[in-house]
């Protein structure tokens, strides 16, 4: 079975307020094993970058303006994703942003049933525990020391390892795509001291509510419910 582990970075929290996707990272799995295929793109959002968003991912408008807008890659993205299950941490957030971009350019949207939400899986397995990506990496002994900023491809690679642990565990010594260290944006993504503690949850109350609504919409036959 083909699956795509993905992550996005954005200019803000809500596409309805004009925020855009600025980075997409995808890792392809086949029967839970990495194929070596990835998709990693930066996008010119054609708007400003709020300081709060820059503090999270370190992507400046000066850097992003050298890349094509989302529209230039929309067909490539949809071809890569196709109908594969999409493994996403807090799927409601990324699906909402990707579908806003697809609607903007009159492309078919991704159905919510296509998502496997690792945040929901982790909450079911570890009720009451911290289930951020950093916290799960720590729980499973996955090296995330290169994660000085949020980066879509690096986070997708980390999430691929977390996902395999959540559904039953990695092969001994297997770390998907992380042997060479961080995947950085380039000159704009500066190295920072290693974070001493895990990032606090990034979810607002509104996002929590959107997440619950997203899970309810997926229904009992959603892919992740069987994991």
From TrEMBL:
UniProt: substrate binding residues: 7, 9, 57, 155
Chain ranges of the Exonuclease domain: 2-172
Record Pfam families: RNase_T (PF00929)
Sections of the chain in a coiled coil: none
Enzyme class: transferase
CDD domains, alphabetized: DNA_pol_III_epsilon_Ecoli_like
Record-annotated active site: 150 (proton acceptor)
GO biological process assignments: DNA replication proofreading
Sequence positions that bind a divalent metal cation: 7, 9, 155
InterPro entries according to UniProt: DnaQ (IPR006054), DnaQ_proteo (IPR006309), Ribonucl_H (IPR013520), RNaseH-like_sf (IPR012337), RNaseH_sf (IPR036397)
One Gene Ontology term, aspect cellular component: cytosol
Cofactor: Mn(2+); Mg(2+)
Reaction equation(s) it catalyzes: DNA(n) + a 2'-deoxyribonucleoside 5'-triphosphate = DNA(n+1) + diphosphate
Cofactor note: Binds 2 divalent metal cations. Magnesium or manganese.
Keywords for the protein's UniProt record, in alphabetical order: DNA replication, DNA-directed DNA polymerase, Exonuclease, Hydrolase, Magnesium, Manganese, Metal-binding, Nuclease, Nucleotidyltransferase, Transferase
Recorded GO MF terms: 3'-5' exonuclease activity; DNA binding; DNA-directed DNA polymerase activity; metal ion binding
EC number of this enzyme: 2.7.7.7
Function text: DNA polymerase III is a complex, multichain enzyme responsible for most of the replicative synthesis in bacteria. The epsilon subunit contain the editing function and is a proofreading 3'-5' exonuclease.
Assembly, per entry: DNA polymerase III contains a core (composed of alpha, epsilon and theta chains) that associates with a tau subunit. This core dimerizes to form the POLIII' complex. PolIII' associates with the gamma complex (composed of gamma, delta, delta', psi and chi chains) and with the beta chain to form the complete DNA polymerase III complex.
Protein name per UniProt: DNA polymerase III subunit epsilon
Organism name: Futiania mangrovi
Top-level taxonomy: Bacteria, Pseudomonadati, Pseudomonadota, Alphaproteobacteria, Futianiales
